[in-house]
């Protein structure tokens, strides 16, 4: 009767692995979303920093152009004042010349002093005309420079407006990309979780008759004694039979998972902490655990499982699930773990 009660207790439903599976999956999804958020913030920070540098350079150019425009305006005002003075002097000279010519026409026998005075005034008048012409040329050049500066300022303002519009568009694009990425990631995590649950459910059905095959968290665990001889890495007859069941389940699952989900079945080899003698085929537990994981992967490939969906890894004695050096603890640590995950 005690044996019957123990069997019924062992066959009871254990909800704890499923809870651990859901909790670990939720934590992985949260960590991934936080990583995406930090990456988006980093990209946005770089975009804003680049925009600030462009705005600083544009503001500096506008300040320089404004100073140049003020200087040009001041120079133009000085030229206008000089031109006005020259024109007034020219008008005065013209008036003096007209008066002298009138005196020359009214009377004869004008003295040599008057003629000399007229010649001097004529020379002065010609010089003032030349000065006036040069001043007019300078004024025209200043007008051209002012027009060019105004055109440059307009171009800088247009570039500034375009930069601000581009920055707004970039921020909107980043926000939209982040939303779409979050939705896509959430969908892929949900899909992979569903297929992982289906996969473990099928393995439970086909391997439920073995007590030394169990689920720990999000991993399916085979004790090494089920698959390998002591100290060896070649699958024995019983191990090949179990791997045949596993290969059928993986092949069936591979046909159902959409191609856009980049999944892999990771095969991890673990040993206990008992050192190898050194006289055998493997020098240490690292080599033994890696060889056992590789042996499982190669056998699954030979049974039709796609090679690109399998990963082998050896962990030696350094990832135990049971502490201590008792025979039971060492037996639990000698294991092959299977985990369905993303590449």
From TrEMBL:
Coiled coil (UniProt feature): 76-166
A single cellular component GO annotation: membrane
Keyword Acetylation belongs to the record: no
Organism for this UniProt entry: Rhizobium straminoryzae
InterPro entries: Bact_OuterMem_StrucFunc, OmpA-like, OmpA-like_sf
Keywords carried by this UniProt record: Coiled coil, Membrane, Transmembrane, Transmembrane helix
Domain OmpA-like: 216-343
Family annotation (NCBIfam families): PRK09039.1-2, PRK09039.1-3, PRK09039.1-4
Range of residues in the leader sequence: none
Protein name: Peptidoglycan-binding protein
Segments traversing the membrane: 20-44
């Amino acid at each position: 009767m005690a044996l019957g009660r123990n069997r019924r207790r062992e066959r009871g439903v254990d909800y704890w692995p499923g809870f651990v599976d859901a909790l670990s999956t939720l934590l992985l999804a949260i960590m991934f979303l936080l990583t995406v958020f930090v990456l988006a913030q980093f990209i946005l920070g770089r975009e804003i920093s680049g925009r600030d540098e462009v705005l600083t350079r544009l503001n500096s150019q506008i300040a320089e152009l404004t100073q140049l425009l003020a200087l040009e305006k001041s120079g133009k005002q000085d030229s206008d004042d000089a031109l006005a003075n020259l024109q007034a002097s020219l008008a005065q000279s013209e008036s003096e010349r007209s008066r002298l010519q009138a005196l020359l026409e009214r009377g004869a026998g004008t003295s040599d002093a008057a003629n000399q005075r007229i010649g001097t005034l004529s020379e002065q008048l010609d010089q003032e005309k030349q000065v006036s012409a040069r001043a007019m040329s300078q004024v025209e050049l200043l007008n051209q420079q002012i027009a060019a500066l105004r055109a440059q300022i307009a171009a800088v303002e247009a570039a500034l407006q375009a930069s601000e519009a581009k920055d707004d568009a970039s921020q909107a694009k980043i926000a939209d990309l982040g939303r779409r990425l979050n939705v896509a990631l959430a969908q892929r995590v949900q899909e992979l979780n569903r297929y992982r649950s289906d996969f473990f459910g099928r393995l439970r059905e086909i391997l439920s008759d073995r007590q030394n095959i169990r689920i720990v968290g999000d991993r399916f665990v085979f004790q090494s004694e089920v698959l390998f001889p002591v100290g060896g890495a070649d699958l024995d007859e019983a191990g090949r039979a179990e791997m045949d069941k596993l290969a059928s389940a993986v092949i069936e699952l591979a046909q159902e998972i959409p191609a856009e989900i980049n999944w892999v079945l990771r095969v991890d080899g673990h040993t206990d902490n008992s050192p190898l003698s050194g006289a055998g085929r493997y020098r240490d537990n690292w080599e033994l655990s890696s060889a056992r994981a590789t042996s499982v992967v190669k056998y699954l490939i030979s049974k039709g499982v796609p090679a690109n969906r399998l990963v082998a890894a050896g962990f030696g004695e350094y990832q135990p699930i049971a502490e201590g050096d008792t025979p039971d603890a060492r037996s639990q640590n000698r294991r092959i773990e299977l985990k369905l995950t993303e590449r």
